[in-house]
Amino acid sequence: TRPLIIDTDPGIDDAAAIALLVDDPSVDIKLIASVSGNVGVGHTTNNALKLLTFLGRRIPVARGAAAPLMRANRFATEAHGKSGMGAFVFPEPDQSLLTESNAIMEERRVLMDSEEPVSILTLGPLTNIALLLATFPEVKEHIDRIVMMGGSTGRGNIGVYGEFNISVDPEAAKMVFRSGLPITMVGLDIGRKAHLVVEDLDALEASGEVGGMIGALFRSYDGGHIEEGIKMYDPSAALALVEPDLFELRPAFVDVEISSPLTMGATVVDYDGIINDAKNTDVCVDVNVDRFRKTFVDRVCAVRRK
Ligand code: BDR
Ligand code: CA
């Protein structure tokens, strides 16, 4: 089993990504770090605690950055609701899961204490990871790989070319892409292709309490506009970590636009060496949708509350 840190802004699809991994025998989730993103960090922290309390999994939760490095917060309440995961009534969160120190200190601790290299799965803006790498560069040696939901090889969602996680904190994302660490990028185009349909939610809801919770959250996703397919952004990154055979990867040099108002936050994906920089990222370029859907439903249906 590989040690794993999940850095996240739950968020409906973040919650699903975490549910996909809690019982995976190939990873050992050492820490869930919250970050400001879909909603403020008070909400994302509380949502992580609520989810783990509901699942009955004792994974420490550390509260992370409250705002991007240089810019004002931009939330995604139209997709995730006012509190980020409000469409399901969770039990009161078990506050004993919350760590005393903040996400950056806790991420450092997990990394430095680990005998094996640790994987990091990022499902939100990259603020915590940029701060971590800048403050404690010695942690780099302990990081196996960053698997990231972020960016796009084509069009964006909060800009024409800007994807949310990258565009909310483009400077942080740029620091991470330039860190020299191995990165797997799972972008918007993959999450759009790897969609569930409403019948998949029916199957989840028929399976029991955990499937019921994930189904209820997704019914309210995107303001309830789910008839045309339910986008699987963060779950794609989670499965790219543990089921890489579902995806096709292609190496590229990736960098982030931080100065043009028109293309702010765009991930520039150079497969062909046009920019003449060394390749720094394995970019996810395709997903087997049928196998993805089946894997998602089977995994979530098998999770039981503890
Ligand atoms: C990303 O933005 C968030 O709203 C989702 O949780 C996902 O991480 C997609 O752009
Ligand atoms: Ca997210």
UniProtKB/TrEMBL annotation:
GO cellular component: cytosol
Keyword Hydrolase attributed: yes
GO terms (BP aspect): purine nucleoside catabolic process
InterPro entries, per database record: Inosine/uridine_hydrolase_dom, IUNH, Ribo_hydro-like
MF annotations from Gene Ontology: purine nucleosidase activity
Domain Inosine/uridine-preferring nucleoside hydrolase stretches: 4-293
Keyword field: Glycosidase, Hydrolase
Protein name, UniProt field: Ribonucleoside hydrolase RihC
